[in-house]
Predict the 3D structure of the following.
Amino acid sequence: MNTPRQLKSLYQQGTNITALLREEQGLHQNTQKIIETAYDLQAGSYVAAMEDPNTVDYKRNYTSEIAKVILSLCEPKTILEAGVGEATTLSGVLQHLNADVRSFGFDLSWSRISYARRWLQRQGKR
Ligand SMILES: C[S@@+](CC[C@H](N)C(=O)[O-])C[C@H]1O[C@@H](n2cnc3c(N)ncnc32)[C@H](O)[C@@H]1O
């Protein structure tokens, strides 16, 4: 069994962490813990990707489309993203909705939620 530090190092070397953990545990499917571990090791990667102008462009278009779908269905007062990650999608969607829409998100990965909070603060959102 690898320690978290060893797993981080393996992730940085490009190892497929979910495959490794499944193999270690003799499983054919991911468990919640395996998904949580793999996503946690990647914490910060979505915010870091927003340094790339191409990603920012892609995200702008993508979140605009999501907002269009939402607005075609209702005029939301609140919005909840399940598996919000680092909120890089949520923040984009909010830019296309009324400023008074209240937003919520949850995620398996606490590390990613921590990045999400900081990202939303940087975007002037709570
Ligand atoms: C592919 S990422 C997408 C993150 C975000 N929705 C976005 O668009 O940037 C999927 C996220 O879902 C989370 N997740 C996966 N299964 C989950 C579950 N059962 N409950 C809560 N979060 C979950 C992961 O931790 C990860 O942050």
